[in-house]
Amino acid sequence: MLTFIGLGLYDADSITCEGRNALREADRVFAEFYTSTLLGATVADLEAAHDIDIEVRDRAGVEQDPEAILAAAETEDVAFLTAGDTMISTTHSDLRIRAEARGIETRVLHGVTAETAASGLTGLQNYRFGKAVTLPFPFVHGAGDVPPSVIESIEANQERGLHTLVYLDIKVDYHKRRGGPDLEDPYMTASHAAELLAAEWDDDALAVVVARAGSPEPLVAADRLSALADREFGEPLHLLVIPGDLHHVEADALAVLADAPAELVDIDE
């Protein structure tokens, strides 16, 4: 059995009760934290909280050489952990398909993900979101500061009146794996993301920062991209939302929950 378990957004307590029970019953536990991570808990914290040993795999050890995981799951009850929801953004469908092809039974135990948290914290309605994008660090793709595909996706959503969720890049140990620079901060900040988008897309556009979703003290702030670029939003993880057309309830929510300037959300002062 191979059970995919989402750990939620922040710490050892963010997992669901169902996920916690399955984790504690597993014979062997693997995890990856290269696509996202829990900023409120280390691997040691997770091991202590759930009384388990965790074998952390890098990208190659999951996507290119998953044999250790699959071989264990053929004879044991194996748990595979990711931050957030194990099949949303941190997608491991390939690993699940490989397991099923080998006759290994699989199941998915979902966790809270940034996608739903962004909607819940900002007050933007979840069914009014279009295609999500990931904004990478400029050194990763070598195609200018913002890949054209990111701007194209935002503009396509805007044309349909839809909101865009912008995931921000994480490059922990990138320099060790790929020869990239040794980053002082491997987590892209919302201010850096706003600066990039303001310079290459629209500095006057309304955007919403969500910082530390799932933590005891999340932060939500809405303003023009140019204004957000000059602010500090504290510890990671951060993400951005580029709103599309606003329902009047959404406009009220951004004004009340994110201190959006009235002129940006068409609310009379």
From TrEMBL:
<feature type="domain" description="Tetrapyrrole methylase">
    <location>
        <begin position="1"/>
        <end position="228"/>
    </location>
</feature>
<feature type="binding site">
    <location>
        <begin position="113"/>
        <end position="114"/>
    </location>
    <ligand>
        <name>S-adenosyl-L-methionine</name>
    </ligand>
</feature>
<dbReference type="Pfam" id="PF00590">
    <property type="entry name" value="TP_methylase"/>
</dbReference>
<feature type="binding site">
    <location>
        <position position="238"/>
    </location>
    <ligand>
        <name>S-adenosyl-L-methionine</name>
    </ligand>
</feature>
<dbReference type="GO" id="GO:0032259">
    <property type="term" value="P:methylation"/>
</dbReference>
<feature type="binding site">
    <location>
        <position position="213"/>
    </location>
    <ligand>
        <name>S-adenosyl-L-methionine</name>
    </ligand>
</feature>
<dbReference type="InterPro" id="IPR000878">
    <property type="entry name" value="4pyrrol_Mease"/>
</dbReference>
<comment type="pathway">
    <text>Protein modification; peptidyl-diphthamide biosynthesis.</text>
</comment>
<comment type="function">
    <text>S-adenosyl-L-methionine-dependent methyltransferase that catalyzes the trimethylation of the amino group of the modified target histidine residue in translation elongation factor 2 (EF-2), to form an intermediate called diphthine. The three successive methylation reactions represent the second step of diphthamide biosynthesis.</text>
</comment>
<dbReference type="GO" id="GO:0004164">
    <property type="term" value="F:diphthine synthase activity"/>
</dbReference>
<keyword id="KW-0808">Transferase</keyword>
<keyword id="KW-0949">S-adenosyl-L-methionine</keyword>
<comment type="similarity">
    <text>Belongs to the diphthine synthase family.</text>
</comment>
<feature type="binding site">
    <location>
        <position position="9"/>
    </location>
    <ligand>
        <name>S-adenosyl-L-methionine</name>
    </ligand>
</feature>
<feature type="binding site">
    <location>
        <position position="88"/>
    </location>
    <ligand>
        <name>S-adenosyl-L-methionine</name>
    </ligand>
</feature>
<dbReference type="InterPro" id="IPR014776">
    <property type="entry name" value="4pyrrole_Mease_sub2"/>
</dbReference>
<dbReference type="InterPro" id="IPR004551">
    <property type="entry name" value="Dphthn_synthase"/>
</dbReference>
<protein>
    <recommendedName>
        <fullName>Diphthine synthase</fullName>
        <ecNumber>2.1.1.98</ecNumber>
    </recommendedName>
</protein>
<dbReference type="GO" id="GO:0017183">
    <property type="term" value="P:protein histidyl modification to diphthamide"/>
</dbReference>
<keyword id="KW-0489">Methyltransferase</keyword>
<feature type="binding site">
    <location>
        <position position="168"/>
    </location>
    <ligand>
        <name>S-adenosyl-L-methionine</name>
    </ligand>
</feature>
<dbReference type="InterPro" id="IPR035996">
    <property type="entry name" value="4pyrrol_Methylase_sf"/>
</dbReference>
<dbReference type="InterPro" id="IPR014777">
    <property type="entry name" value="4pyrrole_Mease_sub1"/>
</dbReference>
<feature type="binding site">
    <location>
        <position position="85"/>
    </location>
    <ligand>
        <name>S-adenosyl-L-methionine</name>
    </ligand>
</feature>
<comment type="subunit">
    <text>Homodimer.</text>
</comment>
